[in-house]
Specification:
The chain is of the alpha+beta class and about 150 residues long. It has 2 domains: about 1-30; about 35-150, no CATH class. Helix content is about 15%, strand content about 35%. The chain is built from 1 helix and 9 strands; from the N terminus they run H-E-E-E-E-E-E-E-E-E. It has one helix at about 5-30; strands at about 30, 35-40, 60-70, 80-85, 90-95, 105-110, 120-125, 130-135, 145-150. The strands form 2 sheets. A 5-stranded antiparallel β-sheet has the order 1-9-8-5-4. Strands 2-3-6-7 form a 4-stranded antiparallel β-sheet, with no helix packed on it. Keywords: Signal.
């Protein structure tokens, strides 16, 4: 192999290293999206008390996100490990989701409504998930843009 070819192949390898590192980093991070709102017609009162008629007047907007050990019926909500507040941004992080077994699996809970968890829409996430960060951007909880990034 000539000296020029050897130098070219080294340059090519050095140029590829940052690309491979970026690909590995993006492969480890997974975005999860909660629906921004639950439509009005998705919400029902199936068995109202006798003599009463139920009506859902409006859709419910996503208000917060949390992590849980097990399905939502267990209400095993995990306390975040870190909360960072900036001017119009708040980051809430669960940094060690591999701390012991999660009976029933690891779950993410999307909370809707004006109160504290009026409606919870949740789903099980991969058992390999090691940490998650939820970022709230905006000036008002009613208008937050919420992003979720999890790593494993």
């Amino acid at each position: 192999m000539s000296e020029a070819m050897r130098i070219s192949s080294h340059k090519l390898l050095l140029a590829a290293v940052p690309l491979l590192a970026a690909a590995a980093a993006s492969a480890a991070e997974h975005k999860i999206e909660c629906p921004v709102q639950l439509p009005q017609d998705a919400l029902q009162v199936v068995h109202p008390p006798s003599g009463w008629t139920a009506f859902v007047p409006t859709a419910l907007r996503l208000s917060s996100v949390t992590m849980m050990n097990g399905p939502p019926s267990k209400m095993a909500i995990l306390k975040p490990d870190e909360i960072k507040q900036q001017k119009n941004k708040k980051k809430v992080s669960w940094l060690d989701l591999n701390d012991g077994p999660a009976p029933g699996g690891k779950w993410i809970a999307c909370n809707y409504g004006e109160g504290n968890n009026d409606v919870i829409l949740s789903r099980q996430i991969d058992d390999k998930t090691s940490q998650c960060t939820v970022t709230y951007s905006g000036t008002s909880p009613r208008e937050y843009d919420i992003t979720i990034a999890c790593d494993w």
